[in-house]
Amino acid sequence: MDEFGLIGQYFASASCAQGGDGIALGIGDDCALLELPAAEQMAVSTDTLVNGVHFPENADPALLAMRGLAVSVSDLAAMGATPVGFTLALTLPMAEPAWLAAFASGLERMAQQCSIRLIGGDTTRGPLSLTFTVFGRVPRGQALTRCGARVGDLVCVGGALGDAAGALPLVLGTRQAAPEIAEPLRARYWSPQPQLTLGQVLRGKASAALDVSDGLLADCGHIAAASGVKLCVEQARLPLSQALRALLGDADARTCALGGGDDYLLAFTLPAEHLQPLCAAGWPVHVVGRVEAGEGVELLDEQGQRLMPPTRGYQHFGSRGD
């Protein structure tokens, strides 16, 4: 099967590739054409996932597609953007119909969950890798960024941390656990749910935001550097799932939450006056610290004393803890 036959059979005919709001022209030409109202801006992000680096060898193709698209859409959530479309550049060692059918099925499922449309891409032969580019729209001047945190703000996250990192030994098959523990953790690894609605609700409220991909401490460091402040994270306030604590115990669960990465939940700084209304409305807002004058990130124990972080998070061209 040639490139055009592959695209036509497995991707161009999918329901997620049939256009939608904001898409004037999708798959089938040299470029897609997107339309935005005058009062909105476009948010764009690109992620590459490489076999054996970002996902295990011989990964289930349906789960791989779901994970790949979800982690890219999570960047739109971090900006408070509404998804519009995405492109996929897929490099394959060979075109296997069963693999492609399963991959396309998983891609369709996550695209529907995120309300995002496939608008183009590329296929080529080589070592397995996926590159997603996602496009979203956000009201002009309301995008969430990393550079607005202010002294006195609360440091918050959008849910339980560390589940995906804790799941990795289960995903790799080096550890076993009862289904009631293993399955929710594996789901957090393979099909993270981008917090799109939360990101949109935080527009005009959160002072800075990003999604947790490299670990809470490392990602808080990005906000601290961009905003020129210090973020203090209180270890005792980390939200941890029962499944993660049952698998690892409290100490190792905290280590996963602080530096494991792959959570794809929102971390954000929030003026205190917005906390109670958001919680009363049922939004998953968990306070884990505060913003102070200074620089960098501090990890504090129950008495407010500084702790040595167990890890700094994932770095592509370094090592954990560098």
Could you explain the architecture of this structure?
It contains 10 helices and 13 strands. The chain has helices at 3-12, 61-78, 97-114, 163-172, 179-190, 196-201, 216-227, 242-248, 250-259, 275-280, and strands at residues 23-25, 33-34, 40-50, 82-92, 117-125, 129-139, 154-157, 208-211, 230-234, 266-270, 286-292, 296-300, 306-307. The longest helix is centred in the first third of the chain and has 18 residues, at 61-78. The protein has a 7-stranded mixed sheet with strand order 8-10-7-11-9-12-13. The chain has a 4-stranded mixed sheet with strand order 3-6-4-5. A two-stranded antiparallel sheet has the order 1-2. It folds into 2 domains: 3-139, 60s Ribosomal Protein L30, Chain: A (2-Layer Sandwich), CATH 3.30.1330.10; 154-307, Phosphoribosyl-aminoimidazole Synthetase, Chain A, domain 2 (Alpha-Beta Complex), CATH 3.90.650.10.
